[in-house]
User: What shape does this take?
Amino acid sequence: MAGTRTRRGAGSEQSRTARAAALAEELHHECTLLLDLYRKKETFAEELTVGGESLVTVPPLSSQLSPNDMLWRLYSALQQCRNLLERAIGREEAVGNGGDRAQYENQKKTVRDRLGHLLASTRLLLEDGAGTAAFTPEPKNSEIDYPGNGSPFALKLWIYRIFNELEHWTLTASKTLKALHPDGATPKERRTRGRARGRRTRR
Amino acid sequence: GLDRQVRLDADTEAQKLLVTWEDGRASTFDVEILRTELMEIVFNETVVATEDQSTGKHQWNWTSPVPLECTSLSVKVRSRDGQDVSEWSSQQILPGLDLPDNTDSQMYPEGKTVPVGSNMTFCCIVKEGQQFGSLLYKDTLVKETMLSRRTYATTMTNQGPSNPSGTNVVCSDEKKMIITGAVVFVGYPPMPSDLVCETHDLISVDCQWSKGRETYLFGMARQTYYTLNGRNCSKARDSNMRCGLEQWDGNWTLVARNLLGEFRLTDAAELGHRVRPVAPVNLTTPEVYSWNASVGWLWKYNGYERLSLICQVQRTSHSNSSTQTYTGYGLNTVVLKDLQPDEKYNVKVRCGSQKNFWKWGEWSLPLSFQTKMDRPVAPDIWLWMDSDNLGRVLWKVSTTSGYEVTLWSPEENSQQTLTLPQSMYSLPINVTDRWSKVTVTARNPAGVSLPANVVIPRHLPGKNGGKGSGFPLSWVAHANASCGYVVDWYNTSCTHDCNVEWTRVCVSINAFFSFAGNFFAGVRYTFSLYACSSESTVLLERWHGYMQELVPSRTVPRLSPNQEGSDVQLTWDQIPLEHQRGFILGYTVYLTNASHLTLLANITDPQLTNHTVKNLVLGSYKFTVKAYNAAGEDGGATVSISLDPYTYWLIMEILVALGTMTCLLIIITIACYRKRKWVKKAFYPDIPEPKLPGEWGITQGTLDVKPSPHSMVHIVEDSVWDSSKEALVTVPEEDEEGTGDEEADTDEPASLRYYNQVVEEGSSSRGRPHASDSSASSTGSMDSGHTDVTYTGIQTSPDASQCAGGGGYRPQMQSASCPEDPQTGPEEHLQPPVGSFGGYQPQCSWKQDSPEADGGGLDQACLGSPTSVTSSQFLLPYDTSEEGKEHQSSASTWFHNLLTGKP
Assistant: This one.
């Protein structure tokens, strides 16, 4: 697959990869913040971990994979993350335990928006490859739906796991995209700017 | 024994266990409940359970402190009759959810809503094969109790309110991984208050209430729901606690309900007692004038037309704010009065029901408008006197574009109008002027105000003299003096804690009164006459007076002279009032000579406090100034002045003289330049032919003459010269290098050499040593004057080359270093150049050149000149330096050119 890539778009592809890597890093930061806010909101002790099987199911990202295959798996995982996040947001709205949690609510929206941008950026990288024709967006995974049977704690734990998945996969995306980008300096510069931008957003 | 087995029915939500058994005879039973797995007794008591007649069964309810799902319970029952007990029934087991076939981890109770302060036991059923770790309530580790192999429980007492998403109880394994958990919602039942229902449109009802205590219960399932007369109030959320009904019922019941309970509120009223009008809309100003305006508005509901309304109109301008109240049926327009012209106003309106007033409605949106401009109001004016004669007409500043002040004189039928700008607010007046009335009007673009008048007082404070022991006063009867007059008086010069006396005079016609009192001579008193009326007293007239005038008790202060050329101006201050002791009538100025006073001036204006004495000659003067009143003059203040020469005149004269001299010199210079030929002829005539009275002796040296155009020496060779006088012999230039003894003739005109043959007539001079004293030298000089030479022009100093080139003619100057000197012996050349030769040294440089002269006279520099010289030229010092030479040369050239008319 990699061999069929066009040379013509190599330069722009590099910059796109760098941009996606910076976006992923910024998103990872936002996801970490969201997880932290949720933990505080629900007074979950920090030392407690979330067990159970992963909500996001993709084949492992081994180093033997071609870059495009790796991007494919990453894209799929991020897609699942976005689906999970959308459902979590919908569930929380339905329960309506809002109260005075403006910062948490804003952070959820920020993560949702940036995840959409990262998905779009990653998809652009995919489209540059030869796998465009085989593109199958949003794989359906019935197991990712809310399993709680109306249990409030099950819902909270499910959302907590989703946010943990988000944190994990955005970190994976950041690392993978950086590894795919031949010039490590550019994403680093972008990271600096990205963090600064992120802080402003948080304010 | 019990006939039939015990039956268990569980209400897990309520954690209630219903135990049913059949035993028709007894009513008292022993009940024992154990946790099946660990065989721990949780209940073992005797209970009373009556038989249900319809079913013939006994029932007993037990509420478990631990959720029934946590672990299996075994129940057995026996009947008791006093000390007699039956056999235990067989154990009936209520299975828990910790049985092996239920492998998942669970926690109970989950999602329960309980009141604040409740005690609750939570149990965690660990997944089959998983190891229990800990239980956390919120984020606090709590102590657990093992209920079964997989079940661990903890009891929380007196729980506080939850956060919006509930309180979490988390069960984790030994690796601190969350196994399971539960949420409990701890809050309060609703408790609203203050239900009030009213109408705005006279038809429907709008009820409001206060939310009351916070329930801490949120979300769709747990929030508080309200119904009003059975209808849902879906919009009653958060802080907006209101609900409406379409028709006025007269009685209302509000029910507030959540999972923990409900609360009821009621209200009842007639419609007419609960009318609260809505806010007026569409405010307009149909008519706006300078001093009033009308404001209109619309009502949203037609029913207001028949409603008696009371409305408040609040108007705000930049200066103040006020509220006025208006009433009327369906009131929708009002007239605002007492507005200020040209003023911006903001108005807003709210209304209430005039009959059975309930509450004010909401304020309308504000409306702004500006009143029209009107002509200004008449200025508020006053006449303020700052002295007996002088005063100012003052008026209060208002928003106008200017003022017009008219001064009137009715007697002369004349007037004078002044136009003053807005910034002016006063006008000085003098009551002694002819004007008797002042009118002030203010103007702006809308017009001119009504006039404001003030009368200038006609009665100046009069003078009055005492007679006998009192003062006679008279005045013209005043129409307003309904209750007579009051006269008061006081010591005029008193300034502090003064004694004022007064008396009342009850007359209604022209009056003449003499007031007796404790008056002192030489003290000024002020009398004021007031007209007494029922409203107030009015000052009519005022007098100043002395009981008896005395001469001033002191002289004029600060008398000082000031010289102004030949005049002297005397200035002084007025005598303080308390020292005047009479009305000062004027001043007398005297010139003091010893003890004799010469009157210079009599000043009859007491306000004038200066006098100029004119045309005085230089010298010292003494002046005396005396003030006088009716009683006489004071002692007189004396001042001296010494008139200085007029220094500036002297300076002027010097300057004029200098100027004149300068002009004269310039004129002379110009005249000399114009008549330079004449001047030359007169003062620098051509050198006459040298006259040789005697025979020229032996030629003893050469005299070189270079006849250049600037030659200063004119040798007049006369053919009729006596041969004996031919002492000047031309020597050829070529022979200059020779011994000088040889005589050679040459035609070279450029350089002539004359051998100066000094005639030595007296042997005394010959035998006299050259190194004689100066007197001898002088004598020698006189003796040796056989050559008469006249020089013209500047004699430039010879330099070394000139010396080397023959030296030229150098009267009275010979350099000992000249090598060409034919008479100079070799030993003389060894002598160093003598510095004293570096300048003009009359009778000081010449030396005996004759061979006979002994050479030891060189160090005797000053010798008598062998030549008598008649010279009118400038003899400039001989400067050995180049600069000096150049300077001399240029200076001499310039002056020569000036005289010769060359540029």
